[in-house]
Design a protein that fits this description.
The protein has 185 residues and is mainly α. Helix content is 54%, strand content 6%. The longest helix is centred in the first third of the chain and has 50 residues, at 4-53. The radius of gyration is 20 Å and the shape is extended. The termini are far apart.
């Protein structure tokens, strides 16, 4: 007859495997969602630009609801509101301060020879409460950086700098990674 402790361990292992599987699936879906949202925003902006060129002149033909849902804004794009795809020679300064802080913390870990970092650990390094809403905001930003080639996600939920992005140094104007604004961009 199996021991109670052995039965509990089996159940715990089964539950942990299920949670890990669901996390992997959620991470995959989240990454696809980031790419799909970016694609949608680009099409909304493209339609607006074509309307301007063809004489529509303003963004009034695109319902305000679409602007709110996509986060895109009619007219000129706000500086640093879009995360560009990483390419050789692109400086970190093209990113908003929050994204630069994520890269700085991962750069410091890379420089010290430390491994990947979870979003919970990032939250602790930014001195923000590890409450789900704030960690998810951080995870969303890290996933966006990973989807656009700035970060690597070696295993689901663990982030490091991409090898090419390691060579670029963030400008000193961002200062240490102490103040986190936590706003979604």
């Amino acid at each position: 007859m199996p021991s109670v402790s052995g039965l509990l361990e089996e159940r715990e292992l089964s539950a942990r495997r299920r949670v890990e599987g669901l996390r992997e699936e959620a991470d995959r879906v989240q990454a696809e969602l980031v790419v799909a949202e970016q694609d949608w925003k680009e099409w909304v902006i493209a339609r607006s630009r074509v309307g301007e060129v063809l004489g529509a002149g303003d963004a009034a033909r695109i319902p305000p609801r679409v602007w709110r849902e996509t986060g895109a804004q009619p007219g000129p794009v706000k500086p640093k509101s879009v995360v560009p795809v990483w390419r050789e020679g692109l400086a970190w300064s093209v990113l908003s301060v929050d994204y630069q802080r994520i890269l700085r913390v991962l750069s410091d870990r890379h420089r010290l020879g430390q491994g990947p970092l979870t979003c919970q650990d990032m939250a602790a390094s930014f001195s923000i409460d590890p409450v789900p809403s704030k960690v998810e905001t951080l995870r969303s930003k890290a996933k966006r950086l990973a989807a656009l080639g700035w970060l690597a996600e070696s295993t689901p939920g663990r982030f490091t700098l991409m090898p090419g992005a390691c060579r670029r140094c963030v400008s000193r104007s961002t200062g240490p990674a102490r103040a986190w604004r936590g706003s979604a961009r």
